[in-house]
Design brief:
Alpha-Beta Plaits, Putative transposase, transposase activity, Transposase_17_sf, 45% helix, alpha+beta, 4 strands
Length: 225
């Protein structure tokens, strides 16, 4: 497994560069790949994951290696980026793959806690603002990881990703709803939905995310069948 994981991690670095995707955080586990990323183009994240799927299928000499389409959610900068990053990087803890997220080498956790740097990693501004020096940021983030996410935050991230709606404050959701959104900005209300006309809806939020990071990076998950 280790050799295959090393190979997939190398593909991730390569394809992120090729598809213009800034990776802020990532974790690879036996059953899924989690990313916190900001794509430069509307198809960047999908292209990256499709390319990794093709490489993995060719390497394993098998058919499709992922289960359907990937799931993603937009997260609000200043409020949800660090919780989302921590949620991504603590996946090995939730799956009991290790008792120390920093020791799981197929993730960005160690790089954010003072371990070896990952040249392909693009730290988000919220992480940079976490401390005045690299040592301060790493030490503070390590304490954050060790303290663990609240169950409320972890559940909110999981639900948003499962439902593929944006995660943030009312003003953030209103901003996304005011522009063309590629996904629901929040959970739908019960009852028959109203009919709406929204041309180019899919490209809207993705393009907004390219031009203004305030629209937020995406958390994405891909799973094998």
């Amino acid at each position: 497994m280790a050799a295959l994981f090393d190979r997939v991690a190398a593909w991730l670095a390569d394809e992120a560069r090729m598809h213009g995707v800034a990776l802020h955080g990532w974790t690879l586990a036996p059953d899924q790949l989690l990313l916190l990323a900001t794509p430069a183009g509307s198809n960047g994240l999908a292209g990256l994951l499709q390319a990794i799927g093709r490489r993995l299928a060719a390497h394993l000499r098998s058919g499709p290696v992922f289960q359907g389409r990937y799931r993603s959610t937009l997260v609000e900068p200043g409020a949800w980026v660090l919780p989302a990053q921590a949620w991504v990087e603590t996946l090995p803890l939730r799956q009991a793959l290790t008792d120390d997220a920093e020791q799981w080498r197929w993730s960005s956790a160690a790089a954010h806690m003072g371990g070896a740097k990952q040249p392909f990693l693009h730290d988000h501004g919220d992480y940079w603002a976490y401390g005045n020096t690299p040592f301060d940021r790493q030490a503070k983030y390590r304490r954050y990881i060790l303290a663990g996410l609240s169950s409320r935050d972890a559940d909110a991230i999981g639900r948003a990703l499962q439902g593929q709606w944006a995660l943030g404050s009312d003003s953030f959701l209103e901003m996304l709803g005011g522009g063309a959104a590629s996904r629901r900005p929040a959970a739908a209300k019960r009852g028959r939905p109203r009919k709406t006309v929204a041309p180019a809806m899919e490209a809207g939020v993705e393009n907004a995310a390219q031009k203004d990071e305030s629209s937020g990076p995406e958390t994405a998950v891909r799973q094998p069948p």
